[in-house]
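Render this sequence as a predicted structure.
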Amino acid sequence: MLAAVDHVQLAAPPGSEYALRAYYAGVLGMTEIPKPPVLAARGGCWFQAGPVQLHLGIERDFRPARKAHPGLRVVGIEAYAARLEAGGAPVAWDGDLPGHRRFYSDDPVGNRLEFLEPLPESDGG
């Protein structure tokens, strides 16, 4: 029985760990978590916020994910978008998902990320 998504892995080019740490920890506010030693030798870095984990693995022939992406739920999406913009990250709002506010952004190596927040439910009246 499938219980939950454990983590999402994104690829990154060799030597990008400094930029990834600055973005995922500094701009997004995630916490870097240690990789097991056998995996740490491969490079890359792992981040966590609450139960959400993103793993950034090094790929020699790296190509950024331009369509595939993690969808990250946030609280206070306007302030979160402002935080990303202040950190130099692009913010592209998209109103096509009913019941949500959302925007897309790119990490420093070009991977697409979606940030979304459900709209408060209407009382119907």
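Summary. The mean pLDDT is 94. The beta strands are 8-12, 31-33, 45-49, 52-58, 71-73, 92-94, 100-106, 112-118.
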